Amino acid sequence: MVSHVARKLIDSLTIRELEELLELKKKNTQISDLLRERDRLRLELRRIEDSIEAVERATAEEATQREAETSDKPTQSFLSGRRRKNLKDYIAQVLLDAGEALSPSEIQRRLPSAGYESSSTNPRSFYNTVFQALQRYEAFEKEGKKYRLADGTIRKDDTVVTEILPKNKTRLKDFIIDVLSRASGPLKVSEIASRVVIAGYDTELGMDELSQRVSATLKKYLNKDFEWDSQRYRLASRN
């Protein structure tokens, strides 16, 4: 109930003054409401910022832990530490990264991401090159219409494969190494030539010509893979 004094003051006001008083009261109410809304939004914003900070901190901690767990695991590679990298090495790396069998065309598309740059401007010609490599090397095993890394391609005690041999060990050097590794002692050139044929080395050369080629191979890799001992050869000792 309006007091007697206040009532007399209101009665003394003109209509214009009354309208201005009502307008002022209305504005004061809106300002109060806006100030309360502002305070509420500030509190809500602070809550959201705290939530964002907590999520970011948890994500950073998880990433750090994941990095620590994987940092001790060496990355398997056919390319690390190798000065000369061949197409077969890049194909092997693509299959290693994929972890599954891939078609020749899939391998061809992924080779650039592995770091291989082809000099061929003909995609079909490059496809044939990739396909031939898949057919040639024993590291690649066919699975339906796709290819995967053959079992045992990666040694369990080493993450870097130093060499990918052709299928069936077609190089004479590989047969010589195999023969000498099985021998009980050093062998003459003629003995090595006879034994590589028995081991399955495919050649149309006669024994004299084959002996000459064996001799040339032994001399080429002398002190690296082979050692000479009184007209006989053996595998080079590994320190």
Provide a descriptive summary of the structure in words.
The chain is mainly alpha-helical and 239 residues long. The chain folds into three domains: 4-71; 74-167, Orthogonal Bundle (Arc Repressor Mutant, subunit A), CATH 1.10.10; 171-235, Arc Repressor Mutant, subunit A, CATH 1.10.10. It has eight helices and four strands; from the N terminus they run H-H-H-H-H-E-E-H-H-H-E-E. It has helices at residues 4-12, 15-71, 87-98, 104-114, 123-136, 172-182, 189-198, 207-220, and strands at residues 140-143, 146-149, 226-229, 232-235. The strands form two sheets. Strands 1-2 form a two-stranded antiparallel ribbon. The longest helix has 57 residues, at 15-71. It is rod-shaped. The N and C termini lie far apart (110 Å). 16% of the residues are buried.
E-strand count? 4
Radius of gyration: 41 Å
Low-confidence residue ranges: 1-5
Please state the overall shape, judged from the principal axes of the Cα atoms. rod-shaped
The average pLDDT is 77
Helical stretch tally: 8
Number of domain modules:
3
- Give the oligomeric state of the chains in this entry, treating copies of one chain as homo and distinct chains as hetero: single chain
**Percent of residues in beta strands:** 5-15%
Fraction of helical residues: 55-70%
Which strand order spans the largest sheet, edge to edge or round the barrel? 1-2
- Biggest sheet statistics: 2 strands, antiparallel
Order of helices and strands: HHHHHEEHHHEE
Please give the alpha-carbon distance between the first and last residues: 110 Å
Structural class: mainly alpha
Name of the CATH architecture of the largest domain:
Orthogonal Bundle
Q: What is the class of the largest domain in the CATH system? A: Mainly Alpha
- CATH topology-level name of the largest domain: Arc Repressor Mutant, subunit A
